[in-house]
Write a structure and sequence with these properties.
single chain, 283 residues, alpha/beta, Rossmann fold, ten-stranded mixed sheet, 10 strands, 39% helix, 20% strand, globular
């Protein structure tokens, strides 16, 4: 992607994937590798090794032996996944610049350290029932300082040619659009959708002003408006994306509090729970 003067360009991405017993690939890895191959990005890999639980009803000696065996199994599984992923990346002609080998489990802190020194983090979508994986997504979104691209479980084919911006005129929306500029420049169609009546937009930046901003970057943008209440906004966006055959959604992430245990906004939660297309988001 062509860098812009004083703007945003991508040069390196971080793909995070889960270790697999029988490696069949991962949507996040496939998407990131395809983008990197097309545009000459560098790629880093982070494999989340399986967590080691606590044995029940075992003596201290037996419990220690069990933990050692499970730790060794987790590390071996991580190694095999990393080796298979490295082969996939190499076959695509992509340069792998870092291959992270964390301890077993999904401690988000080491992953955040890696994410902060990459332009974009790419992760697989996960539902609300997978608490460890969801914690990694939320940590990357709110604590990495970098944009996050979430790939749906059914996968997707890059590059994104039809991109939908969920625009509410907020600072979060503006941040997400800025981070999406490298993708928006190469899109065949960009549409900014505003859902009215969902919340007070009187103090927010208008879609017309967004259109002018994007035009300065050589990006054409169509504007669309739908009316809906808070409990229907996510479904309106989802339905619009499907009807217009969009293949990427750009959306700012909303929280109701600045506390780390923040409650995610309804639309943000909905798309983290059910991500039907690649979601580029930022906070």
């Amino acid at each position: 992607m062509e860098p812009e003067s004083g703007g945003t360009s991508l040069t390196c991405m971080l793909a995070g994937i889960s270790a697999q017993t029988d490696f069949q690939g991962a949507p996040a890895l496939s998407y990131a590798t395809a983008l990197a191959a097309r545009d000459g990005f560098e790629l880093s890999l982070y494999v989340f090794a399986p967590a080691v639980g606590s044995p029940a009803l075992l003596s201290s000696t037996a419990a220690l032996d069990w933990v050692e065996r499970e730790t060794a199994r987790s590390e071996e599984l991580s190694l095999l996944t990393r080796q298979a992923a490295r082969r996939l990346i190499a076959e695509a002609g992509v340069r792998l610049v870092a291959d992270n080998a964390p301890m077993p489990g999904r401690d988000p802190v080491p992953f955040l350290h890696a994410a902060r020194v990459h332009d974009l983090t790419v992760l697989d979508a996960t539902g609300p029932d997978d608490a460890p994986a969801r914690n990694v997504i939320e940590s990357a979104l709110f604590d990495s300082g970098r944009p996050l691209l979430i790939i749906p479980s059914q996968g997707a084919l890059p590059p994104p040619r039809r991109i939908l911006i969920a625009w509410d005129g907020s600072a979060r929306s503006a941040r997400a659009v800025k981070e999406a500029l490298p993708f928006l420049r190469l899109a065949d169609k960009v549409t900014a959708l505003t859902v009215t009546d969902e919340k007070d937009l009187s103090q927010m930046t208008r879609g017309a002003d967004l259109k002018t901003y994007l035009a300065r970057h050589g990006i054409g943008c169509e504007l669309a408006t739908l009316s809906g209440k808070a409990d229907s906004a996510a479904e309106l966006i989802r339905s619009f994306a499907a009807s217009e055959a969009m293949d990427m959604l750009v959306m700012g992430a909303f929280v109701h509090s600045r506390l780390r245990q923040a409650i995610l906004g309804g639309v943000t939660t909905s798309f983290l729970d059910d991500c039907p297309l690649p979601l580029l988001t930022a906070h």
